[in-house]
Amino acid sequence: MLSEYMLMALACVPQGGEADPAQADTGGILELALSPDQPTTGDDLWVEVTTSENTLDVTAQWFRDNDEVVGLVGLAVPAEETRKGESWRVVLIPDLDSLREPALSAKQLILNTPPVVEEVVLESGDTTQALLAQVSTSDLDEDEIDLSYRWLVDGQELETQVSSSLEAGVAIRDQVVEVHVVPHDGEESGDEMSAVAVISNAAPSIASASIQVDGALLTLTIRGWEDADDDPESHRYAWHVDDEAVSGSMSSLDLDDHPGTRTVYCVVTPDDGTSQGDPVTTGVVVVDP
Questions:
Q1: What is the arithmetic mean of pLDDT over 53-63?
Q2: Regarding predicted confidence, which is higher, 225 or 72?
Q3: In degrees rounded to 5, what are phi and psi of residue 147?
Q4: Mean pLDDT calculated for residue range 61-75
Q5: Could you tell me which residues come within 8 angstroms of residue 144 by beta carbon, excluding any fewer than 6 positions away?
C-alpha cells in the first residue's frame, strides 16, 4: 500500500512570474524525476515534478523495459509491480488546449534488494552437545541465499568455527556462546543478526553397578563414571530388600539390619550436585536368610 507521502507524488512547486516561453512545449514542467533514487524491489516508485504553474493537468504513461504498462495510471507505481533488473520510465503528457504533446520523461533501474535474516534461534545445550543455529531468511528478489557464521565464546571469536553449528566440547559449562549470521544473495550482504546461549550443566553417567557379598555386608562396585564438566564423582542409592525399598543412602547394606532377607538389588543414580544422570540397576542378589 502506498504511503500518504508517496500519494502526494506530484509536487507542484510554483516558480513565480510568467512561464518561460522555452518551456511552453512542456506544459510548464521545469524538472521531472522518478523517485526514490536507486530503488529496489521493495520500493514504490513515484513522480516528482517542479513546475512554473500553480496547477498542472497531465497524463502519465509508464513503461517497463520500453514496453508500455497498459492500465497503470496515476503518478506512482506500487512495489509489487516491479522486479530487480527492470528499467522503469514515466512520460508526462501535459494537456495544452486539447493538444497533447509529450513532455519530459524520467527513468530508474530497479536494483537488488539485500536479503534479510528474519530470526536466529540458538537453543542452549551442555558440553556434550553441538549447538545449532536455526536461521530463517527472506529475499524480495527470490534470490538464493548463502549464510556466513561467526561464533564467539565469552566474547572471543573462534576463527575455525564457520558453519551453522558449534562443535560439542568447544564451550564448557556457564560459558556464553554467540552466533552472528550474515545473509548473501550473490550481489549484496544483508544486515547481521545474532543469538546467544549459555552452556548448561552436563549430566553425569555410569557404565555399570554390581553388588559384592561379604558375609552379611553387601557393597556396591560402580564403574565408568563420566562427567563432561569434570565434576567429582557422587551417587544416590536406592536399596530394595525383597522388592521393598529400605531406608538408607549408603554404598553398602548390612543384612544384619534386615533379618530374613532373601533378595536384594540397588538402583544407583549418578549425581554431580546439579544434574542427575540415568539410573543403573544392579543385578538381584539372592542370600540365605
A1: 76
A2: 225
A3: -120, 140
A4: 92
A5: 185, 186
pLDDT at position 1: 34
Tell me the pLDDT tens digit for each residue of 20-48.
Answer: 333 334 455 667 899 999 999 999 999 98
Enumerate residues 6+ apart whose C-beta is below 8 A from 248. 237, 239
Residue 136 or 15, more confident: 136
The Cα 54–Cα 106 span in angstroms is: 22
pLDDT at 259: 86
Burial class (CB in 10 A: 0-12, 13-18, 19+), 65: exposed
What is the mean predicted confidence (pLDDT) over 160-189? 96
What domains are there in the chain, each with its CATH number? 4-109 (2.60.40.2700), 116-198 (2.60.40.10), 208-286 (2.60.40.10)
Contact 147, 183 (CB under 8 A): yes
Residue 90, pLDDT score: 93
> CA–CA separation, 63 vs 118, rounded Å?
34
**pLDDT at position 53:** 61
pTM passes above 0.85: no
The grid cell for 55 is 496547477
